């Protein structure tokens, strides 16, 4: 069983949390939802309330086997906070699996983790990734070593399959 860190804040895309979380848990893994200190929940864009398990101040990459970054407006907010940027960069540098969907890859830009990497993201995010040096594909799932990225909720079946496979 692997322990997966899921970083998010308010206005996260609900289904991009609940669907991968369910797939990972059904495969026997634990998903730990991480957000700001003092928060007990995160509100999804569509009204889902997600309970916070840990604060970003209290976690370390060494305690987790993988990182999940769901989309929505959450990643755009997280990328302005060095705690989340550094957490993401340490994960990528560690070689541990990093899963990002929709707007999730935005945080890779601030983490300096795009140059020469192949990835995808939501339509409006792909030009930003390309401008930051990524090789961008318009495909439902793109795997580049430890990075697994996807475009939209429509791609969740393929995304979930690949993230579960990465932890086998």
From TrEMBL:
Residue stretches making up the DJ-1/PfpI domain: 3-165
GO molecular function, one term: peptidase activity
GO process annotations (BP): proteolysis
InterPro entries: C56_PfpI-like (IPR006286), Class_I_gatase-like (IPR029062), DJ-1/PfpI (IPR002818)
Pfam families in UniProt: DJ-1_PfpI
Keywords from the UniProt entry: Hydrolase, Protease
Gene3D superfamilies documented for this protein: 3.40.50.880
UniProt similarity note: Belongs to the peptidase C56 family.
Protein name: Cysteine protease YraA
Organism phylogeny: Bacteria, Bacillati, Bacillota, Bacilli, Lactobacillales
